[in-house]
TrEMBL record:
Reactions listed under catalytic activity: an organic molecule + reduced [NADPH--hemoprotein reductase] + O2 = an alcohol + oxidized [NADPH--hemoprotein reductase] + H2O + H(+)
Bilayer disposition of the protein: Peripheral membrane protein
Name of the molecule in the record: unspecific monooxygenase
Subcellular location: Endoplasmic reticulum membrane; Microsome membrane
EC number per UniProt: 1.14.14.1
Organism: Bombyx mori
Cofactors named for this entry: heme
GO terms, molecular function: heme binding; iron ion binding; oxidoreductase activity, acting on paired donors, with incorporation or reduction of molecular oxygen, reduced flavin or flavoprotein as one donor, and incorporation of one atom of oxygen
InterPro entries, per database record: Cyt_P450, Cyt_P450_CS, Cyt_P450_E_grp-I, Cyt_P450_sf, Insect_CytP450_Detox
Keywords per UniProt: Endoplasmic reticulum, Heme, Iron, Membrane, Metal-binding, Microsome, Monooxygenase, Oxidoreductase
Family according to the record: Belongs to the cytochrome P450 family.
Pfam families: p450 (PF00067)
Primary location class: endoplasmic reticulum
């Protein structure tokens, strides 16, 4: 992540005080991070802009109506979709990722190669030697509310099939590509519109660098104000639009208003929670339209009501990729703010207008800022 972040820094040094399409830039960053951390591939999408890994990733997020229809049908009626042969993703994309998994695993097995990435985890899973493990350092460094609900280690061992392994690749890419890119884009946008918060973050980074030295996995969790900035970005612009849960036992919801009637939930009922509605409710977060990272300072965190901040969900079925996503976001924001002032331009929208009909948060007209190198 650090090397890829430095690629972004070098790119921006060559485009100072130019209008930069932040959304496109962040997509290329998350693409390269996933290629490396997930598959052991070294890709530089800033140089090779049309590399196959990036192109196939873009194809997975096609917003054409046929693609949307297939996704909705597969999600709501999986048995029917399978019966009539609905394929959510283009055959080229499916074949590409399947070949990556099989060819890389075959090479590593034959040559006794090990690398700390997802392919290695898949190989361990395929051999039945993968265990769900954790340690105190992991839990300490991932950040505040987003990841406090991480699964506890169970030590389960299971052997996976080849198709299941390929499916994990799709899930890893789907979960880590667009949502992380959107989070980074909107964080940079908010910092451009809120120079006070940006300067406070810069001062925190400089102090951190002087006291702790180079950024590492072990010390990144100590940069508290960066965590505050990302938490506040996720509060205003949650990647999880809706969180659904299946009721496991009878439960009666109280009347929603005076004179209303209670509602009884039964086992098997699905409850949909609108994350954005909760996180932008002034009863939970005063002045919700204001970008205020100070909400998440240690002295203020106690004011946040439980289950009113849910960018990664909560409980035993929260997003298991939150730790990776947080690291991915933190590392790049650290290097960008350390090296540049983020400046709003005439093309920087305020307020943001979102594209209708999108599954994820996407800014209408793009997200544009300029970057000026710090002295």
């Amino acid at each position: 992540m650090i090397d890829i972040s430095k690629n972004i820094v070098e790119y921006l040094k060559g485009h100072q005080l130019e209008d930069v399409d932040v959304d496109d830039l962040m997509r290329r960053y998350t693409n390269d991070v996933i290629a490396s951390a997930g598959f052991g591939l070294q890709v530089n999408s800033l140089v090779d802009k049309d590399n196959e890994f990036y192109e196939c990733g873009q194809a997975m997020f096609s917003t054409s109506w046929p693609q949307r229809f297939k996704m909705i049908l597969a999600a709501q009626f999986p048995t029917l979709a399978k019966k009539i042969g609905i394929k959510v993703f283009p055959q080229k994309v499916t074949r590409f990722f399947r070949e990556i998994v099989t060819s890389t695993m075959d090479y590593r097995l034959k040559n006794n190669v090990e690398r700390p990435d997802m392919i290695q985890l898949l190989m361990d899973a395929y051999k039945g030697t993968l265990k769900n493990e954790s340690n105190e350092s992991d839990e300490k460094n991932v950040g505040f509310a987003m990841t406090e609900e991480m699964l506890k280690p169970k030590g389960n061992v299971r052997k996976w099939t080849q198709d299941e392994l390929t499916a994990q690749v799709f899930i890893f890419f789907l979960a880590g590509f667009e949502s992380s890119a959107n989070g980074l884009t909107l964080c940079i946008h908010e910092l451009a519109l809120n120079p006070e918060a940006q300067e406070k973050l810069y001062e925190a980074i400089i102090k951190f660098k002087e006291e702790k030295g180079p950024l590492t996995y072990d010390n990144i969790g100590e940069l508290k104000y960066l965590d505050c900035v990302l938490n506040e970005t996720s509060r205003k612009w949650s990647a999880a639009i809706i969180v659904d849960r299946v009721c496991s036992k009878p439960y009666e919801l109280p009347p929603p208003r005076e004179g209303g009637k209670p509602y009884k939930l039964q086992p098997g009922d699905i409850v949909y929670n609108s994350v954005n509605s909760i996180q932008m409710d002034p009863e939970h977060h005063p002045d919700p339209e204001k970008f205020d990272p100070d909400r998440f300072l240690d002295e203020n965190k106690h004011k946040i009501k439980p289950f009113t901040f849910l960018p990664f969900g909560a409980g035993p079925r929260n997003c298991i990729g939150s730790r990776f996503a947080l690291l991915e976001l933190k590392v790049l924001i650290y290097y960008i703010v350390l090296n540049f002032k983020i400046i709003k331009t005439e093309k920087t929208l305020s307020p943001i207008k979102l594209q209708p009909g999108e599954f994820n948060i996407k800014v209408l007209g793009g997200t544009w800022t300029q970057f000026e190198a710090r002295e």
